[in-house]
Amino acid sequence: MTLSAPDTFPKLLLKHARLRPDRPANREKDCGIWQSWTWAEVGAEVEAFGCGLFAMGFRRGDKLAIIGDNRPRLYWAIAATQALGGVPVPIYQDSIAEEMAFVFDHAEVRFAVAEDQEQVDKLLAIKERCPRLETVIFSDPRGLRHYDQPFLVNYATVQQRGREFAGDNRDFFRGEIAKGSGGDTAIILYTSGTTGRPKGVVLSFDNIIVTATNAIVFEGLTDREEVLAYLPMAWIGEHIFSYAQAYCAGFCTSCPESGATVMLDLCELGPTYFFAPPRIFENILTQVMIRMEDAGWAKRKLFHYFLRVAKRVGLPILDRQSVSFVDRLLYWLGDVLVYGPLKNTLGLSRVRVAYTAGEAIGPDLFIFYRSLGINLKQLYGMTESSVFLCIQKDGEVKPDTAGPPIKGVDIRIADDGEVLFKSPGAFQSYYRDPEATVETKRPDGWVHTGDSGFFDGDGQLKIIDRAKDVGRLEDGSLFAPKYLENKLKFFSWIKEAVVFGDGRPFVAAFLNIDLEAVGDWAERRGFAYASYQDLAAQDTVYDLLQSCVEQVNRDLAAEPAVAASQIRRFLVLHKELDADDGELTRTRKVRRRIIAARYQPLVEALYSGRPTGRIETEITFEDGRKGRMRAELAIRNVATSLPAVEPVVSEKPPPQLSPVDTGEGGTRVSGRVGADIGASC
Amino acid sequence: MPEKRIGEPILTAEQISLAFGGITALNAISLEIRRHEILAMIGPNGAGKTSMLNVINGFYHPQAGTITWKGETRGHMRPYHAASQGIARTFQNVALFKGMTTLDNIMTGRLLRMRRNFLWQMVYFGPAEREELEHRAHAERIIDFLEIQTIRKTPVGRLPYGLQKRVELGRALAMEPELLLLDEPMAGMNVEEKEDMCRFILDVNDEFGTTIALIEHDMGVVMDISDRVVVLDYGRKIADGPPDEVRTSPEVIAAYLGEQR
């Protein structure tokens, strides 16, 4: 980057408004029609809002919280805040009031922009506890007509005041933008926090712009890309893909009509650059498979035949390796008949670069998408590194690595296996938390990621787990819980899995069924069920999951390092693990410790050899009310497999062992669930 | 919340009597519906609630009594006339076009507002095109209002019951009615769907200023959202007043719980 290049997002905005005034910068589907704003229009909208904020008393260094779904107006609020030298603080839109109150208080927020009545209601609920919060600006006035609090202001009103202000002070906004520089704080992002309270990660313009630009160059992104902004705005990935890179490269960011219409909007828009965490790719695949089950006989045959073709030759073709003419022809035919239409329905036909990250992705899942010709790749990064640390190169993509470090990034593996990095994107500090900052970003410049990993033979980084989560079984063998959980979750029936084993004699697991997939499976077989709890407790469902666990055990047996981690006992939880109950983070990662504490009696039961476990838990409904839920859950024993031994006599795969631990492994343990909910409001 | 402006009566029914053969469905009922209010009609099964709605929108013709709509006393009237004069309704059993999409169903609600005849519309040119776009925009505003964007293009026959009810409300709203008659809008819904529907009814009343008369069995809902409650029993009106007053009326308690001996 040359010295004269714009070093803040507002400066980049001015640049695009000048260079490509008529190119679309934002789109939003409103009333069924895509509305677009050009860069010049976005420039004007941002100026109007920024000037309005200033007129209302927003000053350099003030914080502005942003809460809501992805909406152009909220993105403009970010740019406007940055233009005035303020700091935007996006907040997860599904946070409950308590979590919000913590962030508001910690970040000393004075202004907030809320999308709609739902968010305004939450802010009103915490207003008392956050004395610094002065003004709440709302974007969608629906349902707010009778709210007469003086501190509530309509977004349009702010812009109107801004236009009047700008009319009297023509050069004010540009002057404010010119005062900013690359070293200033661009944004504070609160990490969802796998443990404890969220931490506010402070990132400078230099951090984000340099990293985003490096990745743009790496992938050859242009101003013609199309991106759909549908992930939470408070998440660094969303901020980078839909805001930072869009401003750096000048491409267009589109916002879906609503959270529920994302798949439809994706299909209409056909993005060229796409990011989704593994669970979304998983959901899409589950949907496709369920719908294919409903298709006619011929279509189903065709579909499965060509999927097999793709599985065999799709990857070599995508990686530009040599493939026989017949296979090429078959693949081409498959593309015309199956892959093309499928990709079109999913909205992925124009994708040039697709990323997945955040969690390990199942090899089958990953290969499925790649074999269809979608350039799906993995990357490694985190909020503290402005995302990009490693990206897989085209043609060198593997399902279980995260690729080599990108330009400017230095990665070192510590002696205990922890991944350390130095990068231009390395965060400034944790906001108002110098202790945590020093702990993570050491004085020698290395940032400790807390992830455990290693480089494989090709110099690609492989992450196995959080360093603090990697433990040992009682006999000293390695126990990497996430590795096991991921293997379990790769089955479409299993939505979440939590495994235990650190300091224990063997590995045991909690499973969550995927209501959609298992429900459909049950329906097809004519099993009646009344509710989630009822379905989860059915013996047939237990049988189904048992076969999955057994398959995992066979896979584990083939890998010497983890062969000891085979799962001996499991149970199916009566409720879905939920972020509202604190069991998952907002990005849907399991909080193993919290779950272990909450379901202590069940963990005990798993290790006691008893056939059932009894539990009573408190649950939080979506509207914040609490209720109690009681259940008695069956526990199953699972057969383990022998470690893959060097072939001695026979060439057959090792025989499967039947029960090892209690002598009744694999047999059905009876016990119905008596689960009931009592709501106490 | 500032006080709602409930205005003068928009519809007055006087001494309405309706009989089918020997069965008296309505017996000299008088009631009025005031502008901007939400009026609930309750009563045990067979009390004559739906008959009353049918009389109001011209589907049944009472043997005796008069109905005055916006100051105009009307004689024989067909539902078509009622609709064109700003009275819309939904039905106890969902009555949508099952094979048509949500959007198309809502567009049918615009039919009465279309000025060009079908020949014009077939040509789809000039004024007809502009008109179609205008109506579509209105339908889309309703879709947005009822938060049913995801099912815009889904045939309604494939939708769950709760959503079908919502689409039906959407179609009624598409007529931009002054008076909206809802026949058991929440029957057969679960708690969450009921809460949603209540929210929508209140929002319609509030945002569009539509007067609403509804029949509902769920007392919690009735007491929560209505400004006034009329209680019918065996074709007679036994109570009429604010929810709190009606709730304590001995006659109403008797009708619902049985006479004390």
What would the keywords be for this entry?
heterodimer, A: about 675 residues, alpha/beta, six-stranded mixed sheet, 21 helices, 28 strands, disordered C terminus, B: about 260 residues, four-stranded antiparallel sheet, 10 strands, globular
Assembly annotation: heterodimer
Tell the overall outline of chain A: globular
Q: Low-confidence parts of chain A lasting 5 or more residues at pLDDT below 50?
A: 645-681
**Secondary-structure element order of chain B, as H and E?**
EEEHEEHEHHHHEHEHEEHH
In helices, the fraction of residues of chain B equals 25-40%
Biggest β-sheet of chain A, characterized?
6 strands, mixed
The strand count of chain A comes to 28
Number of helices of chain A: 21
Cα Rg of chain B: 19 Å
Helix fraction of chain A, binned, reads 25-40%
Averaged pLDDT of chain A: 87
The end-to-end span of chain A amounts to: 58 Å
Form type of chain B: globular
Largest interface: which pair? A-B, 14 and 17 residues
Q: How large is the radius of gyration of chain A? A: 26 Å
Secondary-structure content class of chain A? alpha/beta
Low confidence ranges of chain B: none
Read across the widest sheet of chain B, the strand sequence of neighbours is 6-7-8-3-9-10
Give the overall average pLDDT of chain B. 87
* Individual helix count of chain B: 10
Structure overview:
The complex is a heterodimer of chains A (681) and B (261). Chain A is an alpha/beta fold and 681 residues long. In chain A, helix 2 (39-55) packs across helix 6, helix 4 packs across helix 5 and helix 12 (297-318) packs across helix 14. The termini of chain A are far apart. In chain A, 47% of the residues are buried. Chain B contains ten helices and ten strands. Chain B has helices at residues 49-56, 79-84, 102-108, 118-123, 127-145, 161-174, 191-208, 219-225, 243-248, 250-257; strands at residues 9-20, 23-34, 38-42, 64-69, 72-74, 87-90, 179-183, 211-215, 228-233, 236-241. Chain B has a six-stranded mixed β-sheet, with helices on both faces. In chain B, helix 3 (102-108) packs parallel to helix 6. The mean pLDDT of chain B is 87. The A-B interface holds A 30-33, 142-143, 145-146, 148, 257-258, 260-261, 264 and B 1-2, 103, 136-137, 140-141, 143-145, 147, 149-150, 152, 203, 206-207.
